């Protein structure tokens, strides 16, 4: 139950005066809520700027284009001529240094007459402009008399708005909400409070909405930071509470004796790299621990994550349990099974694949074997999380290319077993701040070195005008027995983007030149058809594979050594890196040609420069982050941290670690959130709606 003290904050905004059904609708949209926003939503909607009205010059000294507050005497009115309502209503005013014209469009004259009576002294505030040699103020923001001047704020916050919602209306609502803010207990520990120099919550919210200085509203200032810290602490505490619950039921060990793993390692045609061995050992160790595993296996494309995943699956199979490996695309799932199946067979590990393509009897058979415990590892796509996929004893969920899956899908897979361990495979290094924000804490294994014998890739940017040369070079390459990927961005010609090369069009033109040595694979082809073409390419029956980005992740044809990427300027950095990772996998030197159209934008030029300079996935991910901002790395395409309203990773990165540490201290000293401090922390969890973890506390 939410502490009663918070109730005023969770009342609907429609209880405020001036907020009716129309404003309700606008505020829902603005604050991204499906139902009526509450006062807390309004108070956590922070300003992005201020209007500084403190400049009080004489008219002569007012700087056009700036916001000023002027003391004037009203001289005369010039209403719009009758019948010409589009002409403005002008009010002439002045002080002892000059004149100013106040301009109103489509104004009600009775209203203006009352507001600005001739001969009266008024204070007007707004942006001044020069027009026809006269100083003007169009629709002054504020007009007050001597008495009103005392209440005219020197600095006013400016909020993100939505069409139809006026700044003034929003401000009036926020001001009322501020008055309802209850006195809340302090939940931040005294030492942290002191060390970070945070103000109280009430002071922070108060100053953000009623700043005394323009700097008061800056995200890295004390007021915003305090709120960001609250939000992060709530998030970290909720994650810590969940994690503390992730204890394995007694006796449910997930690791076996190593007999299957040894057989797989014996069957490998190569030796594991040291980091592959270390990762497999760390995973086996995790699976022995009383806490559930949450481990990220990070390794650049081609670093050999699949075999580590297979060893993890074998580890739980040795203990009589099952594993699932979920990949984002069908091609990738099939690629995995192709690598895994021969090794599994020799080790006696029972594996199957389940995607949208397994249907009818085939699918029923797989599901029956799965439920009967006759399968040790099921590889697949989203199809794995369908309701009728039931495991006998799922113990390990392996999720490949995690950033393509939402949290919902990850949870859906882990909920198919008890105390399921989680292994996340990612080619994109996830920045530490994001790992902390979304997983609280996740152990990380890195595959730093490439398997032995890999050759560097020579990457070049080539203007599209030299397409003919590139095609000639491809011709020479295939005569020399090489395999070539030719990547195009889209399948169908798009009308909006005229020069984008359509993959089928390119396929046709290359086919005319090189005959049936050219194949095509794209996302709209049927699965079996795609497989057939991929298999032909792997067998070198076709030598040029024209493809859309379906080959982006995971596809493994080590003999392919050349890649041409058309419209390279349109691809993201991570995508280019992933694509290029399809070559340079064998012992031959590889070449990647980035065909681009001129003129190159600044961002595109920067991306192509980075991709030419390095093949280090970690560096590329860092540059990507720098160029795009973090939200995009997770595929969420919003700025800031998804799921967080106030904290921003680029500004509050330090606070994330601080909040994690404080959450761990709390879990150590007061895991049941008891006493006064516990009550305050529960209040925090409810305030930021991270209370889903609270019911977990009681159940021991
Ligand atoms: P990724 O990390 O991109 O998923 P994969 O697991 O697909 O990489 O492995 C890429 C290729 O490297 C595969 O052909 C795989 O068989 C091979 N491979 C994996 N580990 C090694 C190793 N230690 N030595 C040589 N080749 C390896
Ligand atoms: Mg892979």
Report on the structure:
The chain is 39% helix and 18% strand. The chain folds into four domains: 4-51 and 160-217, no CATH class; 54-152, OB fold (Dihydrolipoamide Acetyltransferase, E2P) (Beta Barrel); 259-447, 3-Layer(aba) Sandwich (Rossmann fold); 457-614, P-loop containing nucleotide triphosphate hydrolases (Rossmann fold, 3-Layer(aba) Sandwich). The chain has 700 residues and is of the alpha/beta class. The chain contains 24 helices and 21 strands. Strand 13, helix 14 (407-414) and strand 14 form a beta-alpha-beta unit. The structure holds adenosine-5'-diphosphate (ADP) and magnesium ion (MG). Magnesium ion binds at residues 305-306, 554.
Mean pLDDT: 87
Total strand segments? 21
Hetero groups in this structure are: adenosine-5'-diphosphate, magnesium ion
Q: Give the distance, in angstroms, between the N- and C-terminal Cα atoms.
A: 19 Å
- Helical coverage, percent range: 25-40%
Please state how the strands of the largest beta sheet are arranged side by side: 11-12-10-13-14-9-15
> Counting H and I runs of at least 4 residues, what is the number of helices?
24
Principal-axes geometry comes out as globular
CATH domain class of the largest domain: Alpha Beta
Compute the CA-based radius of gyration.
32 Å
CATH architecture of the largest domain: 3-Layer(aba) Sandwich
The poorly predicted ranges are: 493-499, 630-639
Q: Main sheet, how many strands, which sense, barrel?
A: 7 strands, parallel
